[in-house]
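step=encode ok
step=design start
structure_in=
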């Protein structure tokens, strides 16, 4: 969600908008969203819980967050927003279901989840949010002036990679995509990670095997991975295009599919990608 949502419209509440109500000291509405959320989030992360009085589970989640913020020592703040009474907030945060929880830092969404979660998972999520902004929020109440913060989920994936835990990092990216199917950053990272997992253990022998039998699809895709891993994208693409030419049926589909996956590892405007796509089209038709 980080960087994908524009909250600037919430700095100007509509005429007649009222503040929050129904959730004690942490209630927030359109009239005070800028002060209690956007401005406050330049100092500490603000967890916005969008709930409905018609959803007992979401009300219980608000109560849990009220308990946790009281224990937090001021490391984060809470804003309970009744979604049905504050549709502009719900729309700005792209709420799809109730409850939805969004962490705001430096005036921008940082991380989110949807649905009622058990207390241990909520505590873990909060810890990740607070850790992600540690030492980075020194704003004076003006959203956008604080240092940008990182999505804690991506931080967790990067830490797993630093430990050499490729499977752990892959699981994190898969979780992000499951929650946010349109998250292009996570999709790109997962593609890169899966490629590295395949390619880093290959030896030069795979190239010799593929050269000996151009119709051997399994050898061809391994050789292409090896060549790409060794900074030879044009050679990798040419190999798979040739395999497409000399095979048919499932073998041809497998070679084409792998080639398309390799294309996705690059900027699609790169000249060698554009040229390879044209050659693939010619090989297919």
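sequence_out=
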């Amino acid at each position: 969600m980080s960087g994908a949502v524009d909250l600037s419209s919430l700095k100007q509440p509509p005429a007649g908008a009222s503040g929050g109500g129904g959730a004690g000291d942490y209630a927030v509405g359109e009239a005070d969203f800028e002060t209690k959320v956007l401005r406050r989030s330049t100092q500490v992360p603000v967890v916005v819980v969008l709930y409905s009085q018609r959803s007992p589970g979401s009300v219980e989640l608000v109560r849990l967050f009220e308990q946790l913020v009281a224990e937090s020592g001021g490391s984060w703040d809470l804003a309970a927003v009744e979604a049905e009474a504050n549709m502009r907030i719900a729309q700005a945060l792209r709420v799809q279901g109730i409850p939805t929880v969004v962490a705001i830092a430096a005036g921008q969404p940082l991380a989110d989840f949807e649905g009622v979660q058990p207390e241990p998972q909520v505590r873990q999520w909060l810890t990740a949010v607070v850790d992600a902004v540690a030492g980075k929020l020194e704003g004076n109440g003006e959203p956008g002036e604080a240092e940008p913060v990182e999505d804690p989920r991506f931080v967790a994936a990067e830490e797993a990679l630093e430990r050499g835990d490729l499977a752990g990092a892959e699981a994190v990216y898969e979780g992000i995509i499951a929650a946010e199917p349109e998250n292009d950053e996570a999709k790109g990272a997962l593609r890169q990670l899966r490629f590295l997992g395949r390619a880093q253990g290959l030896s030069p022998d795979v190239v010799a095997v593929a050269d000996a039998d151009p119709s051997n699809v399994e050898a061809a895709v391994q050789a292409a991975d090896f060549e790409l891993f060794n900074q030879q994208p044009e050679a990798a693409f040419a190999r798979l295009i040739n395999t497409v030419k000399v095979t048919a049926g499932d073998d041809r589909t497998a070679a084409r599919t792998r080639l398309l996956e390799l294309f996705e590892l690059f900027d699609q405007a790169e000249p060698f990608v554009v040229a390879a796509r044209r050659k693939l089209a010619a090989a297919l038709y």
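step=design ok
step=annotate ok -> The chain has three domains: 8-147, 153-199, 205-284.
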